[in-house]
Amino acid sequence: MSMRVIPVVDLMRGQVVRGVAGRREEYRPIESVLCDDPSPAAVGDAFRRLGFSEAYIADLDAIGGAEPDWRAYEALIECGLRLLVDAGAGTRQRAEALARFDDTGRQLAAVVVGLESIADHAELAVAIEAVTPDRLIFSLDLRAGVPITRVLHWRQLPAEAIAAKVIELGVRRMIVLDLARVGVNEGIGTAGVCRRLREAHPDLQIISGGGVRSADDLQLLAQAGCDAALVASALHDGRLRQEELRRW
User: Fold this and answer.
1) Which residues pair with 138 in a beta bridge?
2) pLDDT at residue 76, rounded to an integer
3) Strand partners for 17
4) Would you say 24 and 12 are in contact if contact means Cβ atoms under 8 Å apart?
């Protein structure tokens, strides 16, 4: 059973913050057993020391409409990390800017397009064209299992139905992210959705996000067919140790 663990960097105002159930007004700079400094460079170095080679970046200011934090991306790339970046790529202009980003020959490994960032399915089609299917990851953003979407004709659809529609548009890689589970130590909430997606779409790359507390939670996600799991608080709190991470 093979599954990757991908550490999360939540960025806000140039610092790494701790996510709490998607309530961004409550996010504060991280306090971590891994490092003493909430700067992207310090956190990136800590992740590399743990053996990670990639990281998922949620640029919260950019998701809210601000300019992407290009300096933070450069700092994290300098640490030797490949970056999967969600920076509000809901328009062609933003998607193309992220796709073009280049730090001395090193680009973003993937551009994440979140469900909450698009207002119409046509915007996703444009982003796929701008970024290419190999570099684009769609984030199926949920809150307590309910899709977070501004797309009018998707508002009454369950998560799996929205997933099927974006796969028809060309999505090959998907994050299933439940924001209500982030940073609250209540466990994972996406295993059921991920299992059903795996059964319906065997070739889809599936990454689960939100709620991982322990190696047992990672085991459940692996059994659900996930290719990778996003982890943040369990790393910074020391609940997932290096010897446990080696398996993944």
Assistant:
1) 113, 174
2) 97
3) 10, 29
4) yes
DSSP state of 149: -
Rounded distance, CA 92 to CA 176, Å? 23
115-150 per-position pLDDT tens digit? 999 998 899 999 999 999 999 999 999 998 999 999
Q: How confident is the model at residue 186 (pLDDT cuts 50, 70, 90)?
A: confident
Q: What is the DSSP string of 29-93?
A: E---SS-S--SHHHHHHHHHHTT--EEEEEEHHHHTTSPP-HHHHHHHHHTT-EEEEES---SHH
Report helix, strand and coil shares of the chain as percent, to nearest 5: 40, 25, 40
Domains for the chain: give ranges and CATH numbers.
Answer: 4-245 (3.20.20.70)
- Per-residue HEC secondary structure of 84-144 comes to EEECCCCCHHHHHHHHHCEECCEECCEEEEEHHHCCCHHHHHHHHHHHCCCCEEEEEEEEC
The reported pTM is 0.94
Which whole number is the average pLDDT over 190-196? 96
Spatial separation of the C-alpha atoms in residues 3 and 101, rounded to whole Å: 28
Q: Which of 146, 16, 178 is nearest to 81 (CA)?
A: 16
For residue 187, what pLDDT is reported? 78
Q: Which of 200, 210, 208, 205 is nearest to 234 (CA)?
A: 210
